[in-house]
Write a structure and sequence with these properties.
The structure holds two protein chains of two kinds.
Chain A: H1 2-31, E1 51-58, H2 61-77, E2 81-88, H3 90-102, E3 109-112, H4 114-122, H5 130-134, H6 145-150, E4 152-153, E5 156-157, E6 160-161, E7 164-165, E8 167-172, H7 173-178, H8 189-203, H9 213-222, H10 227-233, H11 237-251, H12 258-263, E9 281-285, H13 289-296, E10 300-304, E11 319-320, E12 323-326, H14 333-345, H15 347-353, H16 363-372, H17 375-390, H18 402-417, H19 423-441
Helix pairs in contact in A: 2-15, 9-11, 11-19, 18-19
Chain B: H1 2-50, E1 53-54, E2 62-63, H2 67-74, H3 77-108, H4 115-128, H5 132-141, H6 147-154, H7 167-180, H8 183-194, H9 198-206, H10 211-239, H11 243-249, H12 260-270, H13 274-297, H14 299-302
Antiparallel strand pairs in B: 1-2
């Protein structure tokens, strides 16, 4: 009898534990296999009236802090809305988002990128925002049409740009001054080469040359061509020119060695070789300037992404830095659209965000903000204004498969830098490989 | 007569008792079974099906038959590279780790005042080992201006070698990280060592055997079951290594530290080729299964189980 009772008690406590812990378990393990918190559930848990919106973005600590402050303000002003944020850095973001998409758990508001928005829209993951624009929920009266266009596919808007952005080169002002060099507003590759030489002789600081996708696309643009179109067709021009440039810089004594680049990965803001003055320069997008300056803790200068062709054809462009999109599976699209509207159009939101994601798209806010920002941010405003005067239209969004092509490109550039092959045969291999990848991905 | 009447009754109550315990038993293992089915078996089967499709996660999967597997073997250089890299990693890290584990275990098997403390200290790395924090620390240590080079400087070797940047050495930083985490194997060896009857050593000493002979003729043979157990475990977890490669080197330079699981992850989520990623996964399952099978089949050649006498 005693034993029976004990067993019965144990079984009952187990069942209670199961049922009690079950719902929580399901939500957490349901979400995804990566280590994220419960930021994705959309059920109205707390009070029956509170609407919960989940919001994701990528960024580093600076952006995370600013965005969270802005969110807190919105929640204060709108007590019936609760926003659950989730953020990662760039390199993990898309992996995480695709896991969420596969589980049908995309957050209500998703930070999107020009390179990926097509892919997500094609799979019907994004809500059509044009209806909210037409109904006035999202006010575009002070936003240039081209900005809305940049987030539109087939005439419908799927993403609201959060700011304008342009590729740039940053440099360490102190080192440049010490070497007695004058930085041109937009250097050519030859000029960077010469300056690199002088700086190395005078200060021993090394130079970094961007071997990545940005540079390849710029080279193609300089030749009035398009990098991905060339790769899809198996054309080698831009690639060969780009690899020859990489080779040229690799052979220079002032270039940072590929071994050091493994440790000081330029893809991550905190480990960029510029940060600890191993190099005097780096390449990035203008909306990263704030973060890079903060991490370096020194005065940095901006100049335009270099001209690569002998004809000095202008290649620079303005890019929507990122978008906010709304998931098609969201149950609170209107509330999400209202938040979007506040984010891009309100003075108070932008006063907090300080253009960290790019120069605000609302022209009235642009003017208002410029007067109030700190010097570092003002530099970015000025830079975008300068670029805006001479910018050429941006390339079409990268095709599907671009992610893998970029990874192959990085390996190919590493091969050149480690001296494993000539630019010619590495370019051949790369173009073949890229062509196959892009073909496969478009099926 | 009475006995006959009693028997069926007793049987009934006995069966009743058994049934009750059975039901309780089933309820107790139910959570595990549900979890196992739902989170392991079903996803495994799904991934097997996905391996025959082209699936970019956002769209519906398209069935393409064996194409993923064919591409893997014939059209993907990176696959061969990462397969080789992972084999190299396992081939060196597992034996080195086991040797370290056995060596330290033998030192710790004597009861000294501090043996408990040492055991804990040596076990610690294997608990915190696969964490992201340790990986980041390791990366910093092996940087050209990191701790390792400073230590070498202390003993007079001027060194600013970028250990992570050279293909020959980068993989070894990861192997050393794995060997550093020998603690869990060490504990298992300790218990294995303690089970060897002391009488064997005593009679061997009386017969004039020296320490080395004792080690080779007594310790090793008696330990073979433990070695076998550790070997299988470590090989399997070696093939599953992910964090070290992903955090410390991201597979660079030139994919020389790209572990198979990282490549699988890149394909599935970064390149949105989940179908291909699943095919990669199943190849690894089959390969590791094959190795385990070979080890099991050959164990009677070298593993000595006392019970089989």
């Amino acid at each position: 009898m005693k034993k029976r009772l004990l067993v019965l008690l144990a079984v009952m406590s187990l069942i209670i534990g199961l049922v009690g812990g079950c719902t929580k378990n399901d939500e957490q393990t349901d979400a995804s296999s990566t280590d994220n918190t419960d930021g994705q559930t959309q059920d109205n848990q707390e009070e029956t009236e509170k609407i919960v919106l989940s919001l994701t973005w990528w960024g580093n600590q600076a952006r995370n802090d600013l965005t969270q402050k802005a969110i807190a303000l919105y929640m204060e002003n709108n007590p019936h809305i609760e926003i659950k944020p989730e953020f990662t850095d760039w390199s993990g973001y898309w992996d995480k988002l695709s896991t969420m998409a596969s589980g049908g758990n995309l957050p209500d508001i998703i930070q999107q990128d020009y390179a990926y928005i097509n892919q997500y829209q094609r799979s019907n993951q994004l809500a059509n925002l044009s209806e909210f624009i037409d109904s006035g929920v999202i006010d575009i009266s002070k936003i240039p049409e081209s900005v809305i266009q940049s987030g539109s596919i087939d005439g419908n808007c799927y993403g609201i740009s959060l700011g304008s952005n342009a590729p740039m080169m940053v440099y360490d002002k102190a080192i440049v001054e010490e070497a007695g060099v004058e930085m041109p507003m937009q250097p050519t590759l030859d000029e960077i080469y010469e300056i690199g030489q002088i700086i190395y002789e005078k200060t021993g600081v090394q130079t970094y040359f961007d071997g990545g996708l940005n540079m390849l696309q710029t080279v193609a643009r300089g030749n009035e061509s398009n990098a991905f179109e060339e790769l899809e067709a198996g054309v080698i021009e831009a690639t060969l020119e780009h690899f020859n440039n990489v080779e040229r810089f690799k052979n220079a004594e002032f270039s940072i060695s590929p071994e050091l680049l493994v440790e000081k990965n330029p893809d991550i803001v905190e480990t960029k070789p510029l940060v600890d003055q191993t190099t005097w320069n780096d390449f990035a997008f203008s909306n990263q300037f704030l973060s890079i300056a903060q991490v370096s803790g020194r005065e940095l200068g901006i100049c335009m992404y270099p001209l690569t062709s002998a004809t000095e054809k202008q290649t620079i462009y303005l890019k929507p830095s990122q978008f906010f999109s709304i998931a098609e599976t969201s149950e609170h699209k209107k509330e999400a659209a209202e938040f979007l509207n506040w984010f891009v159009n309100s003075h108070e939101a932008n006063a907090i965000l300080m253009g960290e994601r790019g120069i605000p798209i609302n022209t009235e806010i642009q003017d208002a903000m410029k007067a109030n920002v700190d010097d570092t941010s003002a530099m970015v405003f000025d830079y975008i204004a300068e670029v805006g005067k001479i910018a050429e239209p941006i390339d079409a969004p990268n095709p599907t498969g671009a992610g893998q092509v970029e990874a192959e490109l990085k390996t190919s550039v590493e091969n050149i830098r480690y001296g494993d092959g000539t630019p010619d045969n590495i370019a051949d291999n790369f173009v073949q490989s890229a062509k196959t990848i892009l073909e496969e991905a478009s099926k | 007569m009475e006995n006959l009447a009693k028997l069926p009754k007793q049987k009934k109550t006995l069966r009743q008792k058994l049934n009750k315990e059975k039901i309780a038993g089933y309820i107790f293992i139910a959570p595990f079974i549900i979890g196992f089915l739902g989170f392991i078996i079903v996803p495994m089967l799904m991934s097997f099906v996905f391996s025959f499709t082209r699936y970019n996660i956002l769209d519906t999967p398209q069935f393409i038959g064996l194409e993923n597997y064919i591409t893997m073997f014939t059209g993907d250089e990176v696959f061969w590279k990462t397969f080789k890299v992972t084999l190299y990693y396992v081939f060196f890290s597992v034996p080195l780790r086991l040797i370290m584990a056995l060596f330290i275990a033998m030192l710790l098997v004597r009861k000294s005042k501090l043996s408990g403390f040492y055991r804990a200290v040596y076990y610690l790395p294997s608990i915190i080992g696969s964490s992201v924090a340790v990986a980041i620390l390791w990366k910093r240590m092996y940087a050209s201006d990191g701790v390792i080079n400073s230590l070498l400087g202390l003993i007079g070797i001027q060194s600013d070698i970028p250990w992570l940047g050279r293909e020959e050495t980068a993989i070894w930083t990861l192997i050393i990280l794995a060997v550093w985490q020998f603690g869990s194997s060490m504990l298992i060896f300790l218990s294995g060592l303690k089970q060897i009857p002391k009488t064997l050593y005593e009679s061997a000493t009386m017969d004039g055997a020296n320490k080395i002979q004792q080690f080779l003729q007594i310790t090793l043979p008696m330990l073979t079951p433990t070695i076998f157990f550790n070997l299988i475990n470590q090989i399997i977890s070696g093939f599953m290594a992910f964090t070290q490669s992903y955090i410390i080197t991201q597979g660079r330079p030139r994919n020389s530290t790209l572990f198979y699981t990282v490549y699988m992850y890149q394909n599935s989520f970064t390149y949105s080729k989940l179908g291909y990623g699943c095919a990669l996964a199943w190849f690894m399952v089959l390969f590791v299964g094959l190795i385990t099978l070979i080890l099991f089949k050959t164990q009677n050649k070298w593993v000595y189980y006392e019970a089989e006498r």
